[in-house]
Amino acid sequence: MVRSVREVFDEGQAAGRLRVPVAAWRWAVGSGLVPAADVGPGRWSRAVVEAADPEAVRAALRGPVGAGWAADRLTEALGEPLRCRPRVTASAVGHLARAGLLVYLGGDTGFPDVHPDQVNTLARRRDLPALLDRHVPLGPDQAARRLGVRRTDWDQVVRLGWVAPVGSVEIDYKRHGGVTTIPLYSAEDIALLPITRPSVDWRAVYATAAGSRSPLAALNPVIPGQDRVLLAEVARMARVGRAAAAYWRRRHADFPAPVGGTDVHPQFDRPAIVVWLLAHDKIGVPVGMPAASLVVHRGAGRPASRFRLDDPHLVLADDAEGEDELSGWSTDADAENLAVLAAGEFGTSISRLTVPGTVPLAVPGRVRVIEQFRSGSGGLRVTLAWPAGLRGTAASGAAGGVIRHGVAYAGPGEGCVCARHACGGVVPVSWCAEHGNTVEPVLEWHPEGGIRCTDLSRTRGLTTAGDRADCRHDG
Questions:
Q1: What pTM did the predictor assign?
Q2: Per-residue DSSP letter, 434
């Protein structure tokens, strides 16, 4: 009897032919050590299998590790604090494997074994948060965490019809209710809510205290198929003026067509608008909350301390007699350390404050903590305040520190070689004939970029414009 020779191998048969574990063959394929299936999905030709080096395939495996270990490693890579982002779970590792970001090496497909080196490579990717949002759906509790709200606020979001499940999972609670179907939601849809619903006061939703009624409870659910927006709200989503949104409509042939309204005030389908804005890079999916960075110190010679405030809200006073305020979400440890630093008679100093949307600021002393608030979702929000007259632009570099310059009581002459500023101020240099080391500078000092500096710049601008107008008139 003639014995037939196998010409096509599945993964189990290929591993058996080489006498290696099936997980080793899977990793060899996933890592490119052996060619991809060349006959069909999950099937290799005899030539490919016999060309593989069994010892190299066996040595490359090194592991595997369980989904729980991988989840902890990816959570660690996200960093602390994890505000507005849930921990990575073992089931999330299953989603990443199904998306092709991790090679399935064995075990339960929902909680797979994976290669530790590949997990570490994934953990080092800068776009890890975006990958998690794109490929890992979230349950209700995780969704509330991703949005940064209480679970009751998330339930209101669902009631309003702002998001829809993208899948479900069955969980067996045994004696505590049996099998329960849990809806799953797209993390990208969740992260986009503060952008796609700009009329909502999300700051108030984030800060709702435990036991308080949700600000979302007073809103009416959207009617299916009737979730529409005007061009003004399209502009608010993209943070541009209405004229820009109207221009996009004229300029781009694929801009969504109106579904209602009038010729003057057309209405557009909100989901279609969101898809268009994303496709044209007018908006992006937030991977986390914006953050402020503070470098704080107490007196000369003392080491500086660094703090982070998520979702910062900076309010700058217009009057030198007023106060500036900065609030943001903090960890308990950072909030406690900030309070200790600011507890002295003269408060503390901020040598460098970096907040999105403004230049780096510095405040020399008298910074204090005026409020610590615990929201219903568990976040701790800290508010700092300081006299507005002290605030100025921070020096470049990690050390920071307020930049000061002075306005001469007598205007600088032609011989002055000091650096000039828009406010008329100068920073004396040693070789200046008017303000150098050999003369006594007579200057009114103030922080660069502070209220005094801004007022002087505005005054000089008006004076210069008036001088130019007088010249034109006389001529």
A1: 0.83
A2: T
